[in-house]
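Agenda item 2: 2-phosphoglycolic acid complex prediction
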Amino acid sequence: MKYIIGNYKMHLTGRESAALARGVLHGIRGSEVLPEIVICPSYTALGEVRKVIARSHVVLGAQNVAATPAGPYTGEVSAAQLADVGCTHVLVGHSERRHGLGEGDAAVQSKLVEALAAGVTPILCVGETHDERSAGKAEDVAARQVRAGLQGASFPKRVKCIIAYEPVWAIGSGSAATPDDAVAMHRVIRRAAGEAGVAADSCVVLYGGSVDGSNAYTFLRERDVDGVLVGGASLKVHEFLAIITAAVDVLQAQGV
Ligand code: PGA
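Presented output:
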């Protein structure tokens, strides 16, 4: 199976997000073969998008979650509240939160555990900065983030452990990693997840960072790439649909 995840980041109103989701549903109508599709709008748009995608193949994700279950944490949103509004997935440890908002490995780990406890599937985001790659530390950084993020986590049998490899330098830069580099890092990530106790067949590893309609196929055709996490290109319906089509082509070629 392949996964296509759209991260709208801090863009769009509820109405705009719903219109975009409607465009995606329109574009996939009638397709018999489809990847798993998750749309992650802003918190404020979750309710609107939920209504649009109800009873469709597309599911709802959030972009962040609180590290604690409930309490006096003004402005935070708990995993149970995300489940209540229809989220089946949530991003944890996105680089814009790690690097822009100072979120460390310990907070990411707590968020992942909270999501699992509420029955929301976490999507653990990891990846090195440009300096870390230049210093030859990319593999160590990603492996550390995976081990730290998964510490103490126990995945129920039917829940996949989804990890997105997103090199920080590739996010929003227009310069994606090469598929070869992504594959090499995905292997490192799978190994680290295995060390953290995740069974190989329940580990899903996605690539993210400047994926668009023109390069998606080159990632998705790799067996080691289980899908893509898409930021900017998920805001343009034709680009997002082109990415979904690339996944469909790969699934059909694999006889799925
Ligand atoms: P991008 O973002 O596709 O705009 O590079 C990816 C992400 O931040 O998840």
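Discussion summary: The CA atoms of residues 220 and 227 lie 6 Å apart.
Owner for follow-up: CH.
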